[in-house]
Amino acid sequence: MRNRFYEGSHRPVTRGHSQHASLLDSVERTWQRRRRVRSTILKLAAAGAVVALFVVAENCRADDRRTCFAVTPTSTNIVVSGNVLRLAALAATMSTLGGDSALAAATAPSDPVRCTGVNTSIPAAGPTATNYYGAVTNKAKFRRFSQLACNNVGPVDQYFSMGKAIYYRNCHTGAGINYIYFWGKQDGNASTCFGSTYPEMYAIANSTSNPVTATRMATVYNNTGLTEDTQAGYALGNMMAAALIAESARDFLVIPENYMLMDRLAAGKITALQLIGGHCVGGAETCGNTAATQDGAHPLAWGGAQASMMTGGWGTSNGATSDFGMAFETDLIVNWLKDKNKIATTTASCPVTTLGGYGGQQQTTIRGLFTSLF
């Protein structure tokens, strides 16, 4: 095969050429070599530009931390930055958690039956009076569960129910700590174990005849509780418990963010697959689900979140700690507030850069933007 960089650049040199002809031929060959070098450099530069543009596009995400917004109604005369709004959401969350009572163990089901099938992540022993925490059917109970210590101290095997399903939270030291799994049934009936990664659970919960929707997902926490006594229902419950308990325990700011995302799903701004299907977020450094489109909407419900969202591993539960993570959470919060007409863009400057820099009543108003989420 002819090398395109050298195509047409060689001439046959015949014997008997004069010295002058040889000199001219040598000059031409030198010129051709230089032309090829320049051509190669230009092509490499063009390829580099394409790669650079691709990298920029892949990692480009709105960063509204320093952008100023007017709180509506504008009569409040409050202008805040995206970062202050993120801090206010966290402050409202911590205030709510401070008012929650501690979760206590409850009477265990009388006839629990573990699921059958291979799942080495769940124990054979079932719930007892010291490690079963009752039915979880509303936001408050999910919040309280996320605050329950899961650090190899106290009950290291934690159980709770959603509908007729029993779920298991692993609190043993190791890579699987804080993971939640479907354990079995509490009514004495048989069931089948399944994988507990988000993509696996989503595939079981979702079907053409019964797709994962905001309505189905919301029943889990709207006081109705999980009602689907099917494999699809158990998987749906597992996904939701993982996001509302396990992910929330890693970052308390995820507590309101879960419901922001649910609102965005109900409004058609994102899809259920983006929210809970295990898709990595765009521009993340690490991704445990490279086979899927990197268009995820949830800050933590995807493989590899720890490395991208938290500097040096999981933080102190007080919001993302990496620059990427803080920008991502700010973007989510700002978009939700805009959806709800709680803030508007403005050309005015932000008067201060911290939540504490505002007056007491102004701080109350800013934190109050998030009250409906709890």
Kindly describe this structure.
The chain contains 11 helices and 8 strands. With 374 residues, the protein is an alpha+beta fold. Helices cover 40% and strands 9% of the residues. It has a 5-stranded mixed sheet. Strand 1 and strand 2 form a beta hairpin. The protein folds into 2 domains: 61-99 and 251-374, no CATH class; 102-247, no CATH class. Residues 1-31 and 40-60 have low confidence and may be disordered. The chain is globular.
Layout: helices, strands, pairs:
Blueprint: H1 19-59, E1 68-71, E2 79-81, H2 82-99, E3 113-114, E4 132-135, H3 139-147, E5 157-162, E6 165-170, E7 180-185, H4 198-205, H5 214-218, H6 231-250, H7 254-266, H8 272-276, H9 305-309, H10 323-339, E8 343-345, H11 360-368
Parallel strand pairs: 4-5
Antiparallel strand pairs: 1-2, 1-8, 3-7, 5-6, 6-7
